[in-house]
Design a protein that fits this description.
With about 1150 residues, this protein is of the alpha+beta class. The protein is about 40% helix and about 20% strand. The longest helix has about 50 residues. One of its GO terms (cellular component) is ribonucleoprotein complex. It holds the Pfam family EFL1.
Length: about 1150
């Protein structure tokens, strides 16, 4: 980039009113990078001839090879619109669902977005996803209907048919936006109604009985006439939708270099027809036609069979141009059209064998796409100054806290956001959305700077002087030496003169420079960021705020007026660092900057040791961390990796750390979502060693179901199947280590006593309704918050919780109560003991012990109990051991050590016998138990101590079942607490496992939602591949106006490997799937099934060795984990015996 262009951009950065931060969003292969090329070419960075072929913003080698974008990349463009000059910070993002995390990082930094939709394919699954992401981040989109040329060349539509087709696509896009808007309005209205009801309830309580009766008489009528759409009618949503007459839609063909908006044609025809431009803008799109006789624009083109204005004045011209240039190649007509349009093309373009070259040359002058798109962006997208207060409050409200509950100094920063000020006193606020790796050689400080004319002239003069000195030295040597020594002397003298130093010095210089080259070859990380307030300067000291940083805690721990340059005390999740370097992002290149004002996108160097994936940077410790990014796709598959040579393990660890930092979607190890980009990056870029990757590790879940009513041949079952399961468990039980202490009754209740006979636990397992399981899984973050609040209440600490969070918890409780209906679930919600695994999973532990009233998990909702510190007094000793045993049992089930899901364990009995030994105070005991439970360790002390203590207990101190007498002692508290606690955890875990096995067990498989676009001729092959891989088609629909079918299906993750390649091979590339993790689904077949009835023996045979999908999955997981697998293998087989030989 030249100095002139860089200086221009630096000057434009200081005026935030004329800055536009935007990203390009679309489904895969809808033309994002091609459009970006056209916009980049408008700045002269690349040739307009190469636009669409060069793919300038796809800087990675694998992106160029595969032809899809994998990483979002940014570039700054300059555009003059009218009398103003604008700076456009453009971010190109991927369209493939496997790289949707890159879209999230791009959307967060922008104020607007260009949404591209293919004019043939219309709204695709990823189009809906990117529109939803733009909506969630509260950024304004504009629409580009791309690939218009396909309507002419591929679909062969007439201009009128194309107009109808475009209208339908526009309706589809607006339907997606409308659905998002409707859900938001209805949510807000529901909140207002709740607040209104609460207010009325308070008034009713405070007023007298007469007022209460009058209010009570008014409200039922209002409730009966509830109109759900009332909020929608009051709210103005006209600005949300895409409409050409509003100027937020461009029709384009990026590959042919043309694009236009309605306003451009309105400007052209207003001069020719003498109709006002404003009238044409409103009537060019819609059901309007031109009445030639009356010379008026009238409504009702469709009813009267007339050509709409858009077809007559716009599309017909484009269709005629394509017909003349591409289809007929009529040179005379083309020349006439060029003359009327005032377009001149080069002779080589008109003579070119490919008609598309001539078409592109004409269209790029007549309707340049860059002009249409960039003028729409400047006019319709907001500047950084226009950021809404709603978006600011949402960005600053991290976790469960509301903006109103943040400290005052933090709330004052909202003004700095909204003003987007670059004044000296404005606090610096920067958000880093991701870290990306850059080759150190590509950094500006390591690249050779181009020489100026003055430096070139100076070097030329120095070279002439050296040459003159060398010639003078040679002549002097020739005159002083004899004729025999002339050749040798001149040779010896020329060596130091030509090389400017002897050979020994040169070798030493080379030896010194070698390590330098090796050091520069390393990758370095640059932060992809945006400045929201203040001016960022190189060398500035700032605070790095982690995602869990609490501004209230930070302000309490830091002295008043503390700056990052001061010596700062240690604060959790807050560090100080210096910004080493600032970069202007120019696609494949970086340009060094000294300072960057507010409202700009930039790259920051030197943060790799302080920022993992994303972070908030500020000069004020009152600044809260921004809310986490919204990721559309969740990684579900893991891969275990080891180096090929064990000595290279440190390189692998370093490489994985770098990959974890570079990939926003990677978690802990390497997460793979269908693409092998992670592994390739690790192998070739970060670790640079040979690695061995395991087969993909597919997660499963274990659950129980209600006893089936039909057997495997659809015959009705009696009670024999259920009793068979119970007997099976009873037969297996004596072989376990709890053989003398385990009892299983016919109802499925499992009773186990600890080895020291001090505690007995009775547990039974029940399947949770599917709706409850889904609710708990979706509310995992809320359940985790609930557990944190309960923990703080038990420990006597105060934890501020926002009213919104309390409302959500109350709503969760109400929904659980509504879903858990029936006799067996009576008051179940009030008796919930814990959730698991990890205290927030989709399994429930119920307290059904008679006479044990422990504090409810919903105690934070009761204001009376909130302030009660001694709530732990209501807990029994060893209460936490029961919970810890439940957590361990739900973390790894008995089938294949996978987590449980959708199981309710009800503790029916819990007897404790009191001993003489004095227990520890409950606070220490609870802490010890919780630590042991979380670590998953059971460390018993002396097993005999408990028995001796039990034997020595006096009758007065002995307690009956379910009763505990507490004793406190300062010394000698090393009694039975350790052994009983450890044994109780182990017994509770085993009780849960046996109760689980006493019910019909099933595996749950992770399922992908599969969206496939295919043509009619390959539809059968797609169905064949899906059927072979246990897939299930949900629905299919044909896209109107095309021969494309959109198929929605679900597919087990375990069967998805190689699925995309197989579909492409079978359909010759005409179908491509997009896989996104959707849900968990119960596999219908029982992995432990054996034939029990006569019909099953007849149908399946005595061995029943037909394929059992659940058993296959279960054995594969057990084999991978090194567990026992029951399978028959033939060893040392010598020969095969057939029936004929046995005679």
């Amino acid at each position: 980039m030249g100095h002139k262009g860089l200086d221009k951009i630096i000057a434009l950065q200081k005026n935030p009113a004329n800055i536009r931060n935007l990203c390009i969003l679309a489904h895969v292969d809808h033309g994002k990078t091609t459009l970006a090329d056209c916009l980049v070419a408008s700045n002269g960075i690349i040739s307009s001839r190469l636009a669409g072929k060069l793919r300038y913003l796809d800087s990675r080698e694998d992106e160029q090879l595969r032809g899809i974008t994998m990483k979002s990349s940014a570039i700054s463009l300059h555009y003059a619109f009218g009398e103003k000059e604008y700076l456009l910070n453009l971010i190109d993002s991927p369209g493939h669902v496997d790289f949707s995390s890159e879209v999230s990082t791009a959307v967060r930094l922008c104020d607007g977005a260009i949404v591209i939709v293919d004019a043939v394919e219309g709204v695709c699954p990823q189009t809906q996803a990117v529109l939803r992401q733009a909506w969630l981040e509260n950024i304004r989109p504009v629409l580009v209907l791309n690939k218009m040329d396909r309507l002419i060349s591929e679909l062969k539509l007439t201009s009128l048919e194309a107009f109808t087709h475009l209208q339908k696509i526009l309706e589809q896009v607006n339907a997606v936006t409308g659905a998002l808007f409707t859900s938001k309005v209805l949510e807000e209205r529901a909140e207002k109604e709740e607040q209104k009801e609460k207010k009325e309830q308070k008034e009713r309580d405070s007023s007298g009985s007469q007022a209460g009766e009058s209010h009570a008489g008014e409200t039922p009528g209002a409730d009966q006439v509830y109109d759900w759409s009332a909020g929608l009618e009051e709210t103005d949503d006209s600005h949300l939708y895409f409409s050409p007459d509003q100027g937020n839609v461009v029709f384009a063909s990026a590959i042919d270099g043309w694009g236009f908006s309605i306003q451009q044609f309105a400007r052209i025809y207003s001069q020719k027809m003498g109709i006002r431009e404003e009238v044409l803008c409103k009537t060019l799109w819609g059901d309007f036609f031109l009445n030639a006789k009356a010379k008026k624009i009238m409504k009702g083109a469709q009813a009267k069979g007339k050509k709409p204005l858009f077809v007559q004045l716009v599309l017909d011209n484009i269709w005629t141009l394509y017909d003349a240039v591409v289809t007929r190649r009529d040179k005379e007509k083309v020349e006439k059209m060029m003359t009327s349009l005032g377009v001149k093309v080069m002779a080589r373009d008109s003579r070119h064998s490919d008609p598309k070259v001539l078409l592109s040359a004409i269209c790029s002058q007549w309707l340049p796409i860059s002009q249409a798109v960039l003028s729409m962006v400047c006019e319709k997208l907001p500047s950084p100054l226009d950021i809404s207060t709603e978006r600011v409050e949402r960005l600053m409200s991290v976790g469960a806290r509301q903006f109103d509950s943040l400290p005052e100094r933090t709330q004052e920063l909202k003004n700095a956001f909204v003003q987007c000020s670059s004044e000296a006193e404005a606090p610096v606020i920067v958000f880093v959305s991701k870290m990306f790796a850059v080759d150190a050689k590509a950094l500006p400080q390591n690249k050779q700077r181009p020489l100026t004319h003055e430096e070139l002239a100076e070097r030329r003069e120095q070279a002439r002087q050296r040459h003159a000195d060398r010639m003078a030295a040679n002549q002097q040597a020739q005159s002083s030496a004899g004729p025999a020594q002339l050749g040798i002397q001149s040779y010896v003298v020329s060596l130091p003169a030509g090389g400017e130093g002897d050979p020994i010095q040169m070798e030493s210089l080379a030896a010194v420079k070698e390590p330098e080259v090796e050091e520069v070859a390393k990758d370095t990380f640059v932060a992809f960021a945006r400045v929201y307030s203040g001016v960022v300067r190189r060398g500035q000291k700032v605070f790095i705020l982690g995602p869990k940083y609490d501004p209230a805690q930070g302000l309490n721990m830091l002295p008043e007026g503390c700056m990052a340059s001061d010596s700062v005390p240690e604060v959790p999740h807050l560090t100080c660092c210096t910004l080493d370097s600032l970069y202007l992002l120019m696609g494949r290149e970086l340009e060094e900057l000294d300072e960057v004002p507010s409202g700009n996108v930039l790259g920051i160097g030197g943060l790799e040791d302080f920022v993992l994936k994303s972070a908030t940077i500020s000069t004020s410790p009152a600044c809260p961390p921004f809310i986490p990014l919204n990721f559309e796709a969740t990684p579900i598959v893991r891969v275990a990796i080891e180096p090929k040579h064990p000595s290279e393990m440190p390189k692998l660890v370093r490489g994985m750390r770098l990959l974890n930092q570079a990939d926003p979607c990677a978690e802990v190890l390497i997460q793979e979502t269908g693409e092998h980009r992670c592994l390739d990056d690790l192998r070739q870029r970060f670790a640079k060693i040979e690695i061995t990757a395991s087969k993909p590790i597919i997660p499963f879940r274990e659950t129980v179901v209600r006893p089936p009513k039909l057997d495997m041949v659809n015959e009705e079952l009696g009670r024999q199947h259920k009793t068979a399961i119970i007997h099976q468990v009873k037969e297996e039980a004596p072989q376990s280590r709890f053989s003398d202490t385990l009892h299983v009754d016919p109802g499925g209740l499992v009773t186990i006593t600890t080895p020291n006979r001090l505690a007995t636990v009775g547990v039974c397992a029940l399947p949770l309704p599917t709706e409850v399981t889904c609710l708990l899984e979706a509310s995992s973050e809320l359940v985790r918050t609930l557990e944190q609040v309960n923990m703080s209440l038990r420990e006597g600490r105060s934890l501020t919780v926002s009213p919104r969070t309390l409302e959500d918890i109350a709503h969760l409780k109400a929904r659980l109560a509504a879903l858990l209906q029936g006799h067996k679930w009576k008051n179940a919600v009030e008796h919930i003991w814990a959730f698991g695994p990890r205290r927030y999973g989709p399994n429930i532990l119920l307290n059904s012990v008679e006479g044990y009233q422990r504090p409810s998990v919903w105690q934070c909702l009761d204001p009376a109990e909130k302030g009660a510190e001694p709530c732990a007094a209501a807990l029994r000793d060893l209460d936490n051991s029961i919970v810890s045993g439940f957590q361990l049992a739900t973390l790894s089930g008995p089938m294949c050590e996978e987590p449980l899901m959708g199981v309710c364990f009800s503790v029916e009995r819990w007897d404790l016998q009191q001993t003489r030994a004095r227990p520890e105070p409950p606070s220490r005991a609870a802490a010890t138990d919780s630590e042991g439970a979380e670590a998953g360790e059971v460390v018993p002390e002396d097993g005999g101590a408990g028995l001796e203590a039990a034997a020595a207990a006096t009758p007065e101190e002995e307690a009956g079942p379910g009763q505990v007498t507490r004793h406190w002692a300062g010394a000698g508290s090393a009694g039975c607490y350790g052994p009983v606690s450890g044994q109780l955890i182990a017994v509770m875990k085993e009780a849960c496992r046996h109760a689980f096995q006493a019910r019909p067990q099933r595996l749950m498989a992770a399922m992908y939602t599969c969206e496939i676009m295919a043509t009619a001729e390959v539809l059968g092959r797609v169905y064949g591949v899906l059927g072979k891989r246990e897939g299930r088609v949900l629905h299919e629909e044909m896209k109107e106006g095309t021969d494309m079918f959109l198929i929605s299906a679900v597919l087990p993750v375990a069967e998805s490997f190689g699925f995309a390649d197989e579909i492409r091979k079978r359909t010759s590339g005409l179908a491509s799937p997009q896989l996104v993790f959707s849900h968990w689904e119960v596999i219908a077949s029982d992995p432990y099934w054996v034939p029990t009835t006569e019909e099953e023996y007849l149908h399946f045979g005595e061995k029943a060795d037909s394929a059992n999908q659940a058993l296959k999955y279960m054995n594969a997981v057990r084999r991978r984990k090194g567990l026992y697998v029951e399978e028959k293998t033939v060893e040392h087989a010598e020969k095969q015996r057939t029936l004929s030989k046995n005679k």
